[in-house]
TrEMBL record:
Catalysed reactions, as listed in the record: (6S)-5-formyl-5,6,7,8-tetrahydrofolate + ATP = (6R)-5,10-methenyltetrahydrofolate + ADP + phosphate
Keyword Ligase (UniProt): yes
Binding-site residues for substrate, renumbered to this chain: L55, E60
EC number: 6.3.3.2
Pfam families noted in UniProt: 5-FTHF_cyc-lig
Protein name as it appears in the record: 5-formyltetrahydrofolate cyclo-ligase
Binding site residues for ATP: K9, R10, A11, L12, R13
Keywords: ATP-binding, Ligase, Magnesium, Metal-binding, Nucleotide-binding
Length: 192
């Protein structure tokens, strides 16, 4: 890894974490409603019957109301489960029973389906620290989603969920970084 790029990523991630920590409860509530509405619209646009989506932690864009809505609609939702080898297993758990995963983020509890289970979904919704104008996603540095997306033979549309201020002109790029097909913010959906 180029140390200059690694340093740029660390600095940008620290800035983005601080911005997220400084959001007011009202800003979070408004953003949560916007994320939910736009994610519902995206699911309708791609006619998704099966999706993968992460369980949001406190400072992340809130996916929980959307996940509840998807379950109520009968949409199959796969949740990521982190593994020691850096890959992701999947489960059709719910967002009520959860544990803290290896990466320190919430994970659903349920039967493990293995890494290839994601090949059967119609839409993949991933977390991100930022996304740039070319569709490059910068994650939080663990590489779980880059490895998963990079190993898929046939990948359905992948959308990152970020706050409006995290859609940037450019993010630092490394060879393993995977692009996304679009992003969802509280105010819009952008397809690349």
């Amino acid at each position: 890894m180029d140390s200059d790029i690694a340093h740029q990523k660390r600095a940008l991630r620290a800035e983005l974490r601080e911005r997220r920590r400084n959001l007011t409860s009202l800003e979070r509530e408004d953003a949560s409603a916007g994320f939910t509405e736009n994610l519902q619209r995206l699911v309708a646009e791609v006619s998704a019957q099966s999706i993968s989506c992460y369980l949001s932690s406190n400072n992340e864009p809130n996916t929980r109301p959307f996940v509840n809505w998807a379950a109520e609609q009968g949409i199959r939702v796969l949740f990521p489960i982190s593994r020691e080898d850096g890959l992701l297993d999947w489960t059709v758990g719910n967002n009520e029973d959860e544990i803290e995963g290896l990466a320190g983020v919430p994970e659903a509890v349920g039967e493990l389906l293995g890494p290839i289970a994601i090949n059967d979904v119609d839409l993949i919704i991933v977390p991100a620290a930022a996304v740039d104008a070319s569709g490059l996603r910068m994650g939080w540095g663990r590489g779980y989603f880059d490895k998963t997306l990079g190993s898929m033979e046939k990948c359905p549309p992948v959308y990152a969920v970020v706050f409006d201020s995290e859609y940037l002109e450019e993010v630092p790029r490394e060879v393993h970084d995977q692009p996304v097909n679009g992003l969802v913010t509280p105010t819009r959906i952008i397809a690349f």
